[in-house]
């Protein structure tokens, strides 16, 4: 290496060291400032949806005040006895929107909704164990006709199936109300004994009646499928390829429409019956009132004093050797003297209204 190259290398080294010193002097000193923290309540373990919260599944953690979640809980006593409505992971802070004041799974039921359980020993075979809480299903109703298959009153061939409800949410499978945690879900290999659905009060009545009169089964559908289609009833005759059928079968598009027609007819009949009963009751009350009024009027007439007929009294007068008589008409009580057989008027008994005299 010649002297010139050595000089260039030394110059470059001096420049590099000078630049490093300059940068270190310009850069401000980093001062670590400890942020203020406050204790908050967090999950000590994974808490599934519907869990009744107890103190042993909670813990407290120090959390920066400037990063506090909205609605964070700061005291364990505030949440003991409440229910988790949203699943929480271990070390996740508890917030108000994820817990409810109610007890148990009843707090997970929305306003105006009902949890209706369908119980059947072979439910698992019909859905192949694929159902999970939160899924959407259609409820199918299979009914076996009570009439003799092929008889004059059998329009179905012996059995029929219809779509009773569509897009119903699964609330629970057996006793589980939450999906399994993790990215994959291990399906149960045992048969499902019961499925609980979230329905309205009217839908619960339909399910109860249909379950007592036939068999209910579920068809799994996409969670984002909100379509509500009307499909005809399928009968054994349809499967057998039997053509034709009475108009009544074509008119029953779904079992739900059939129920509505029956309920409406019963309501109209009940309203007419109540109207007739109310009319008959009003007529009976009017008759009883008129009869009572007549009796009271007759009693009043019987109690009223009867008018006394005027009485004529003949009085003989003597004036010297002449005699005459006076006739008095009295409007009062007159008595006949037992001695003479003539009428005699007592003082104060009556007032004469007419007098006639004759000699």
Automatic annotation (TrEMBL):
Signal peptide: 1-19
Domain SAF: 38-100
Region (Disordered): 329-359
Coiled-coil ranges from the UniProt annotation: 266-303
Pfam families membership: RcpC, SAF
Key words, A-Z: Coiled coil, Signal
InterPro entries: Pilus_assmbl_Flp-typ_CpaB (IPR017592), RcpC_dom (IPR031571), SAF (IPR013974)
Coiled coil in keyword set: yes
UniProt superkingdom: Bacteria
NCBIfam families: pilus_cpaB
Protein name: Flp pilus assembly protein CpaB
Originating organism: Roseiconus nitratireducens
